[in-house]
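Researcher: Go.
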Amino acid sequence: MRRSAPWLLPVLVAAGGFVSLGDTGAGPILKYAAYFAGAIALPGTLLLRAAWRSTGNWAEDLGLGSVVGATWQLIGWAIFTALGWQRWLIVWPALVLAGFAVAGRRYFRIADPKPLPFAWTVGLAVSAAVMVGAATLGVMAYHPMPPHGEAYYPDLLYHLSMVHELTRAVPPELPQVVHERLDYHWFANADMAAAVDVTRLTPLVVLFRLWILPWLVVSLLVCATLARTVSRTWWTGVLAALALAAPQLFLLVDTSVNLAPPVSLLSPSQTFGMVAAVAVAVFLIELLFRKGSHRLWLLIVPVAVVGGGSKPTVLPLLVAAVGLAALYLLVTRRRIPWRLVGTAVVLLVVGAITLLTVAGSTSGSSVQFLAVLKSLPVYTAATGDKTQPGDGGLILPALAHGEVLGTLSLLLGLLLTLQAMSWAGFGVVGKRDPIAWFLLGAMIAGWLGYLLIDHPSVSESYFVYTAAPFSLAAAGWFAATSARASGRPIPIAVAAFILSIGYAGLLVWARGVPAASTGRQLWLTTRMLLVVLGITLFLLLVWRLTLRQAGGGMFLVLVLLSTAPISSFAQSAARGDTERAPTYRAARWWIYPDEAEAALWLGQHSGQYDVVATNTWCRPAGSIAPGCDARGYLVSGIAGRRTLLEGWAYTNQAMAAQGHGGRRYTEQPSPWPDRVTLTEQALTAPTAEVLRRLRDQYGVRWLYADGRNGPIAPALDQLAVRRHSIGKVRIYDLGA
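Model: Structure:
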């Protein structure tokens, strides 16, 4: 009981957060908690122990087990959904529990307990409390659920549309373009869909409020497990958890769009893919370097598939990790490490399969060195380079101008500071251990992807986000080795945490008061970097005077671990933000109350497989002319229905057109112009023939007509049945 007591802290923080939100009752929260515990965590933990072993403690078992359980649940979801048995999905995890209750009761206990110190539990529980507090009091408060907010971040509605779709069919269709395949890394959304099928909660509540919280805790547990696995030192896991949680403290003093990477509510695929990648890494280390059981393949392959189907960055990092470790063994032992070569081949095959089937959204990407610099708001003003992400040659165009090299160096320094968490582990480069080169392989691949790939949405950032847990594990390992040499491991661990808080406070001051001028913004960035450099040099001096015997590089690990919490502050400085609204208020993504209410009505009164024709493909409302931002997901997202055509921006066809006509992919004309024409005819100049074509050719049952996006012909009241009207929105039934 004493060991479990600290875990009450994140539970109480989450409860307080939901009370402050006031939009999710106790019933849905308890139901989802019971679902995650009984259908994900416990079955997965039992499968983990049967296929491999226990880690010796319940916390790490439940972390890795949750990933295994989610993988098992996704297999069941795919089978049951393909057969149309979604409502019976609870049978799938129940079979596991029943089977172990009958024939595997020994797996409910830990045969060889190896409990972690109480301080480990406290450190992880505090980190989890920070995570869930930042998520509920910060991110969720900033993103009210429809219809209680007026602006909704478009990616959330896009993910919502996929959750709805994944409760309907396997393989899924593209909700925004009926009869087209959904080409996206949608496994995180499928995990939500499975939760919806079992709990009968709405996709809105699951996505906006409930799904992220347990996975935040799992992310801490698996990252701490990886750190402890490679270092064999318990407190490195605590450092990894603190490094992940500390940046979220920013959300408790200021509102923000999102959790600080590498975890994310706005990109659930990043969070889900990252925990899968880390779990696979733990299994691979045990299999390849610690003589683990060959039964680990039963976990490695399916979890790797889940990782690749969640984020395209996962498999390249794992392949690079195994590949570099194999190269190290080849060079040092002068013989081919066939086990590692075979493993790399398996991961390559898994990567190819997922890339060709479910890991879409990579269209429009190209190779350009330092293209990620274009993501900084001050870049264009400082360099004069107006090329868009995904556009340009092999080298950043601004590099051709010698007079801006100083500015580019400054901006690169800012990026390196922001991503310190993802390169803190390079201190293990001198270790004569293949596990060190395994971690280095993942980090190198992450940074190569970050610095070389040019994605239209700057999604190359996900490479370093996915590499962050590997970097933290490596940094902790290096810190543990140096601490053992100094004979002061615990004081050093405490010092790292204190330094992180100190860095955060100093960089709040360094942020200063933003100004509109480019020169002022560059000075603020320079001042922030000078603060980092000054503290680093001071620590170097202190380290050499006091702990010389621990190795001259130990200070670097502490400094880099300490920079992790500054990312939110530094990003705020780069954007020039001083204050924010209490909720998301972006004018472009404004949805009027009548639009949201009408969409909810349509979702409640239409069939799950009904198709809707709508004129809401662009935002903001009233701008559906060519060149508008085609990220309108009102009907497919809030109503949760398939549409003849809605926002097409995230389709591969649109992303491949990045830069055409000088426009971003979000502003490209529709790849389906015939559907645009047909929809406009149905709403502005309807005839019986047009409506019959909608029904017969595309299966359209409903018309959602938003008067803000164009005139609605009075003739529709004679040709179809008006079922609902509110404000400027009319909903018509075309009949079965």
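Model: The mean pLDDT is 86.
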